């Protein structure tokens, strides 16, 4: 069961990502609602939180006719059924099910099911299927499979479809990725900042590594076959942008990045970049925003897999009780970043 303070905060901001995780019982009216219900909000002392509608009805409450909280369970079951169908199709390398087919199978109209699916996962069914194929290709490449094996094994009909799909996402070519950055030039530098020595590295597409208290050896371990070039005139301007972003919170949102991960990791990183400076989110809130409310531990792992500190602000994620949690570069740096942004 979600803790009461987190539930109340989600209810206060009508957070749709918490729908289905609990319901709110309003004792003065005798009804229970979704967290996102648009009805006038009651006073805190008149509210109780229940795991689901069954528990709320057992306490003598009835469902709100405005937000219809019991439909959340049906929506969730429909989305899970559609995801199973998409995954089965991907594993069998069969034809991808169309939106109309998925909607008909779960008893929804295509337009309504598109909204339901996007609300639950953050993606349309078609985008989810594409992300699934991309993730399968990434995993195959990371395990040492040839590029051709990875492309066709992931369900792409042709190599051109794969490269079109991954444009701007892989950064390095797939073959270079498999071979530790072979054939890729990476400019790098270690600069002094108020937070300590900072390593910045970038390909021609954008920043691929930003870390504290690391150096050339650490970068070489990540990209053992890349051409590592210290400094460089073209790199200098980007380096200054990165330093400014670290020293002056709230800037740097336009700095290009060359990062990659699984489909879920990239959804988590996208949600991290939406957190405004001066604010924090819990791991549970990020998991819900990324479309997988139960994947709190996986969200923590995705947070830890972030290669570009500050630019993807994983330091803005804290535990549900408000404590800082962990940070790859030490809690002192995390605490200082949050303190600066709070000002």
What is the helix/strand order?
HEEEHEHHHHHHHEEEHEHHEHHEH
Give me the Rg, rounded: 23 Å
State the helix count.
15
Shape: flat
CATH architecture of the largest domain, please? Orthogonal Bundle
Return the average pLDDT rounded to an integer.
Answer: 81
Strand content: 5-15%
Class by alpha and beta content: alpha/beta
* Gap from first CA to last CA: 34 Å
Q: Portion of residues in helices?
A: 40-55%
Low-confidence stretches: none
* CATH topology annotation of the largest domain: Arc Repressor Mutant, subunit A
Tell me about this structure.
By secondary structure, the chain is α/β, with parallel strands linked by helices. It has 15 helices and 10 strands. A hairpin with a 4-residue loop joins strand 6 (196-202) and strand 7. The mean pLDDT is 81.
Keywords:
single chain, 343 residues, alpha/beta, DNA Methylphosphotriester Repair Domain, Arc Repressor Mutant, subunit A, Double Stranded RNA Binding Domain, four-stranded mixed β-sheet, 15 helices, 10 strands, 13% strand
């Amino acid at each position: 069961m979600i803790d009461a303070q987190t539930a109340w905060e989600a209810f206060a901001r009508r957070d749709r990502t918490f729908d289905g995780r609990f319901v709110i019982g309003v004792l003065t009216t005798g009804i229970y609602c979704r967290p996102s219900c648009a009805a006038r909000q009651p006073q805190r002392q008149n509210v109780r939180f229940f795991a689901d509608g069954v528990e709320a009805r057992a306490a003598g409450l009835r469902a709100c006719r405005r937000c219809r909280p019991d439909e959340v369970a049906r929506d969730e079951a429909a989305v899970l059924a559609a995801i199973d169908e998409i995954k089965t199709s991907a594993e069998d390398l069969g034809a991808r099910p169309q939106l109309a087919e998925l909607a008909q199978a779960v008893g929804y109209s295509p337009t309504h099911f598109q909204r339901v699916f996007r609300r639950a996962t953050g993606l349309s069914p078609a985008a989810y299927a594409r992300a699934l194929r991309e993730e399968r290709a990434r995993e195959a490449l990371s395990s040492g499979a040839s590029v051709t094996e990875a492309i066709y094994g992931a369900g792409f009909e042709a190599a051109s479809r794969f490269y079109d799909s991954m444009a701007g996402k892989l950064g390095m070519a797939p073959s270079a990725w498999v071979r530790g950055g072979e054939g890729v030039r990476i400019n790098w530098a270690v600069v002094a900042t108020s937070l300590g020595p900072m390593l910045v590295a970038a390909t021609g597409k954008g920043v691929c590594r930003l870390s504290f208290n690391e150096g050339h050896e650490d970068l070489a371990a990540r990209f053992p076959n890349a051409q590592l070039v210290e400094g460089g005139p073209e790199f200098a301007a980007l380096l200054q942008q990165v330093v400014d972003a670290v020293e002056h919170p709230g800037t740097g949102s336009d700095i290009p990045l060359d990062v990659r991960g699984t489909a879920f990791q990239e959804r988590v990183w996208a949600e991290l970049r939406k957190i405004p400076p001066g604010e924090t989110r819990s791991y549970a809130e990020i998991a819900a925003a990324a479309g997988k409310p139960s994947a709190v531990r996986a969200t923590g792992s995705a947070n830890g897999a972030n290669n570009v500190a500050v630019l993807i602000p994983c330091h803005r994620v804290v535990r549900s009780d408000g404590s800082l949690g962990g940070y790859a570069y030490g809690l002192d740096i995390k605490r200082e970043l949050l303190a600066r942004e709070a000002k």
